[in-house]
Amino acid sequence: MGTGKRGLTTTAVTVVCAVTILAAPGTTFASPSPAPSPTASPSTAPSLPPNKDLEAVQKKLERLYHAAAVATDAYNAAEEKAKEQSTEIVELAQKIVQGQRKLDELKDRAGATARAQYRTGGLPPEAQLMLSDDPQQFLSGAGRVLQGQRATKGLIGDMTRTQQDLKQYAKDASAQWEKLETGRKAKDAAKKKIKRQIEAAEKLESQLEKREKERLAELEREAAYKAQTAWLDTGILKEISGRASAQGKKAVTFASAQIGKPYEWGAEGPDTFDCSGLTSQAWAAAGRPVPRTSQEQWKQLRHIEVKDMRPGDLIIYFDDASHVGMYVGDGAIVHAPRPGRTVTVAGAGSMPILGVVRPDA
């Protein structure tokens, strides 16, 4: 086995093994250089106002959890991209192995041709033909020479193309590897931001007394109720009359069955979910795969008017499309709210609606 073959085969095997490691959930990596210290940490979490103004605390918590939601979407997007790139790298590695095998076979054929020439004294077929005194032998030999020349030319062409393919596969694999590494760094940065924001929110909440926590929860419910009431007061429910499709019913059934399960950023079930993990898995269970993140769901799925929505449709919230819930009818959604909460039913208008998207036709 030549050095080039060993190098390509080793590259392919190394690529597959490394991709497996990179794609493994929960894998940590040592940074090649000292990582910069984060701009915010749990120790620098916002402290309570001197008078413990709970409305101010509520707004701070909303900002922290919203930032965590945005970072979660970035993490999920990087995770999905990494899966795609890992698959591409593995496919390229397989092509390298197959290409090397084909090149070996072509080299064996070329070697057989060379050995045959050696057995005839090293004279090329053309020279042997010119030394023939038999006209019939000359004519039949001329045909064989022409056929042999074409075969040799084809063999050389195949070898050249295969070598070029191998070089391109290796180049493509290297490019995908670099993208995968860039994505890993983006995912790692998003993960750190999520943890910082959640830890800061938890520290802020930990400074509250039991009675204050209860009052804070009450304020959140009041705010949600006020927003939902304002939404309903527009008379929107009188316009919403769409019936769920067969797939929509399956998606709603799946999402509703998850009620009570904890929120966990980056989770797609079966025991925990984040907001887009819940909606993407619900529609996957209905036989209609959708993008993993709320932002991509907003970008890629068909937009419809709020008045035209039906159970199973996805409502995207906030200007940055950082949250999503599934409409289940009667002005309600099922969604995974945020860390510390569970999958629950809420008013469809309890948060600022960006728009509605429909996964099925």
> What is the percentage of strand-forming residues?
5-15%
* Class by SSE composition: alpha+beta
**Individual helix count:** 9
Mean pLDDT across the residues is 77
Shape: elongated
Number of strands: 6
The SSE order reads HHHHHHHHHEEEEEE
> Can you list the strand order of the major beta sheet?
1-6-2-3-4-5
Ends apart, CA distance between termini? 55 Å
Q: Spans with pLDDT under 50 lasting ≥5 residues?
A: 1-45, 47-51
Give the structure's gist in a few sentences.
The chain is of the alpha+beta class. The protein has helices at 3-23, 54-119, 125-130, 135-206, 210-232, 236-239, 246-257, 275-285, 294-300; strands at 302-304, 314-317, 323-329, 332-335, 344-347, 353-358. Strands 1-6-2-3-4-5 form a six-stranded antiparallel sheet.
Topology overview:
Layout: H1 3-23, H2 54-119, H3 125-130, H4 135-206, H5 210-232, H6 236-239, H7 246-257, H8 275-285, H9 294-300, E1 302-304, E2 314-317, E3 323-329, E4 332-335, E5 344-347, E6 353-358
Helix pairs in contact: 1-2, 1-4, 2-4, 2-5, 7-8
